[in-house]
Design brief:
The chain is α/β, with parallel strands linked by helices. The protein has helices at about 10-25, 35-50, 60-85, 90-100, 110-130, 165-185, 195-200, 210-225, 230-235, 280-290, and strands at about 5-10, 130-135, 150, 155-165, 190-195, 205, 240-255, 260-270, 300. The protein has one domain (about 5-300). Strands 1, 2, 3, 4, 5, 6, 7, 8 and 9 form a nine-stranded mixed β-sheet that branches. The two termini are about 35 Å apart.
Length: about 300
């Protein structure tokens, strides 16, 4: 199941939003160093928004990449702080870890910070979709276990989150994630953040029109899953895996409108049972992918 979302955001909105996020993190008692990722985003955006030529035609490629990455991080941290606020103490350590890393993923040697960010964003997205979500309870520290435990009514499931940066590592990460589901003793989903895999160099891709923008992203996620079919089919016990949650956010530009934009998508697949509209699995796909009906799937960064 696939839904798309569209957002419009001007440069001053990015500055205001990041300032608010940093203040919100500090209000939780966490220190936000001047050289941390969010602070560096903010410093760059202040200079960018004050420049005389912020538009897509004039902006240098590296500037546009940085703006888009700041917008993606901002959108995710807004959800994280809003949805996890009332019990932030149990997410506090993960939030502190997530503040590290480089402004652009391609310059990172370690992915610990963005791995933590994806886990937090996934938890926030599930919360926003109406699920109760908590870190998975660790019973035996020597054994691997999933990252999250979610429930809605009688439907309870675990989630193991993985960020994947290359096709070569995708099958390996799926197997690792499944092992952690089995170690936790719960049926569940593997959640894969594939932005880095789909756009390793943070390139800006040009499209013409809304559907030309969203369709390639959705198709790419479907193709990724199809390419892993043998690996997924070989996982045993098969009933342990309920499905795969795919996520990607990519920067691009509309060649007609000449504005930079962000396309974001959740794609939820069911691996071993029919996805009937009345099933709890369809409900997850529908709620997660369309978690905010008032917001549609591309973020337009207006001048």
């Amino acid at each position: 199941m696939r839904f798309t979302r569209v957002r419009r955001l001007a440069a001053p909105d990015l500055v205001e939003g990041l300032t608010s996020i940093i203040e919100g993190v500090q209000a939780k008692g966490l220190r936000v160093p001047a050289n941390c990722r969010l602070s560096r985003h903010l410093s760059f955006l202040r200079n960018w928004s004050e420049s005389s030529s912020p538009g897509i035609v004039q902006a240098r490629l590296i500037e546009l990449r940085s703006v888009m990455r700041a917008a993606i991080d901002l959108n995710e941290y807004v959800d994280i702080l809003n949805e996890l606020d009332h019990d932030m103490e149990e997410w506090r350590e993960k939030l502190e870890i997530s503040l590290g890393g480089q402004p652009l993923p391609g310059k990172e040697k370690k992915t610990t910070a963005r791995d933590a960010q994806f886990e937090l964003f996934l938890a926030a997205s599930l919360r926003r979709a109406g699920y109760r979500v908590h870190p998975f309870p660790v019973v035996d520290p020597t054994k691997g276990c999933p990252d999250l435990l979610a429930r809605r009514g009688p439907f309870e499931f675990a989630i193991e989150a993985k960020r994947v940066g290359s096709r070569e590592s995708l099958d390996k990460r799926i197997k690792e994630a499944f092992g952690q589901l089995v170690g936790g003793g719960r049926c569940g989903y593997i959640a894969i953040e594939a932005s880095r895999l789909l756009n390793k160099s943070d390139n800006i891709v040009s499209y013409r029109g809304f559907y030309a923008e969203t369709s390639p992203l959705f198709n790419s996620l479907c193709e990724l899953e199809a390419s892993c079919d043998k690996t997924i089919s070989a996982l045993q016990p098969r009933e342990q895996l309920l499905g795969i949650i795919w996520r990607a956010s990519l920067g691009s530009s509309d060649s007609a409108a000449r504005v930079p934009q962000i396309a974001s998508s959740f794609y939820v697949s069911c691996t071993n049972r029919p996805l009937r509209r009345d099933s709890t699995y369809w409900t997850l796909a529908h709620r997660l992918a369309n978690r905010d009906r008032s917001t549609a799937a591309i973020t337009y960064l207006n001048d």
